[in-house]
Each structure stands twice: as structure tokens, then as C-alpha cells.
Amino acid sequence: MPPVDLLCIAAHRDDAELTCGGTLIKAVDDGYRVGVLDLTEGEMGTRGSADLRAQEAEAAAEVMGLTIRENLRLPDAGVENTRAAREALVAMIRQLQPRVVIAPAARGRHPDHRLTSELVRDACFLAGIARYVPDVPRHRPLKLLHTITYREDAVKPTFVVDISAQFERKLAAIRCYASQFDGQTQAGEVFPNGESLYDIVTHQAAHYGARIRCRYGEPFYTDETMRVTDVLALDVSTF
Fold first, then answer.
1. 6-233 has which CATH code?
2. Is the pLDDT of residue 154 over 70?
3. C-alpha angle 96/107/22, rounded to 5°?
4. Of 21, 33, 36, 223, whose CB count within 10 A is highest?
5. Is the pLDDT assigned to residue 157 strictly greater than 90?
6. Other residues' Cβ atoms within 10 Å of the Cβ of residue 84
7. Counting Cβ atoms within 10 Å, is residue 52 exposed (0-12), middle (13-18) or buried (19+)?
8. Whose CA is closest to 197, among 211, 169, 178?
9. Is 53's pLDDT higher than 90?
10. What is the pTM of this model?
11. What tens digit of pLDDT does each residue of 76-110 get?
């Protein structure tokens, strides 16, 4: 299994595309190896099927240019932060050796999203303990990012990634999930407002883009404070 620089760990197939697809594509554009680890197969979904979603996920991975996309096959609508789940996730993190991991927001209306956030944080820490599941060499990611797109209850983003050049490909990756999104007005953490889901995705990206004075953006939160080494290099005009 090839190592990656950036790994998004998501509860369901399509979560990565909806919340941080532009950032993943931007990292690929910048020459990094990027992967997605979906924790469940989406077998509890109201629309489509697990097999169909697997095909859609493969198509989306190709659009995004991913190095790898794997599935941990935890139960859909049943993700729990158990020892067994932590050990399985630790093994994957050690094999893929990401420097940066993207996890869901700490809060979410779908229990799988909230519990995935907690599970990912715990597994990233445990992956650095040599005697924890010692059959795979330890590896602890440097940075854990939480994607907070669509979360109206989230804190102010720590930073926003400019995805203006990647947005159309992000939307193309989302459109790969026709069984889930065509004709829909909500999904996952995307609340309905009367528009099509694709329009809501566009307007959310435009909203966060405006916060950094660009066309489209994706917001992230980190618990730790970000360091600045050159205040004269700071971007985004105050006025």
C-alpha cells in the first residue's frame, strides 16, 4: 500500500468530496500524494446501494487524482470509538504514513461524523505509541485538521484554503455520486434551503472564498494555534 502525504478519513463515501474535495485536489495539483479512507461502505443509505456507491467513489477518486482510496468497512450508522475500531484505524494510518490527516468536524448531525472525528483523533495519537499494536511500525501524523464546511455551529475557521482553481473538479467529483445527490436538496451535513444540493455546495464555497478574498474556499479548524514566521507575508486584506 503506497504511503501518502495527506489523508482524509471520512465516515462515508462522498463525505470527503463534499467537505474538502477542493483541498485534496489542490494538494494533488501541488505534487503531493493524497488518499481517502472511508470508514463505512454506506450500506444504510436511503438511496442507491453500497456496491453502486463503491463505483461512484472510484470514479470520484479518479477525478480527484487520488493515490489511494481504501475502505475500513465499519458498520454504516454504527461507527463507534471502540478498541477494535481504533486498532484497525491505527494499522491503516501506520501503513499510509500521512503527514497531515483531515477529519470531520467535532460536531455533526450524523452520529457517524461526530464519532469519526473522535475516533480519528484517538487513532492518530495511538499510532505513535510503539507498543500499541506493535506488529506495524509506529507513525504519528504531524497535523490533524477538522473540516467544518456546512457547519453553522462551528467556531471561526483557523484557516481557509483557496480552491478557486479546483472548484469545478470538486463539483465534478461530487456529481459522480448521482445516486446520492441528483435531484436532492440536502445530504450529510448539508442543510436544505430550497436550492439544489449542487447550488448549495457552490454557495458555501463562495461564502468561504469571500472570507479570504477569493472566489471559492474550504474552511478548516485546528485545536492548536497556527504559527506565523513573517507578519509581512500575511495574506488577505483587512480593509
1. 3.40.50.10320
2. no
3. 50
4. 21
5. yes
6. 9
7. middle
8. 178
9. yes
10. 0.96
11. 999 999 999 999 999 999 999 999 999 999 998 89
Start-end of H helices in 39-175: 50-64, 83-96, 111-126, 167-175
Dist CA 79 CA 86 (whole Å): 11
Percent of the chain predicted with pLDDT > 90: 90
Burial class (CB in 10 A: 0-12, 13-18, 19+), 133: middle
Q: Which helix (H) or strand (E) holds 145?
A: strand 143-147
* Unique residue bearing C-alpha cell 454557495: 203
Ramachandran region of residue 123, left (φ > 0), alpha (ψ -120 to 50) or beta? alpha
Using CA of residue 169, residue 63, residue 112, residue 88, what is the dihedral sign? negative
CA–CA dist 39, 59 (Å, integer): 18
DSSP category for residue 2: -
HSE-CB at 38 with a 13 A cutoff on CA atoms is 25
Q: For the chain, what is the mean pLDDT?
A: 96
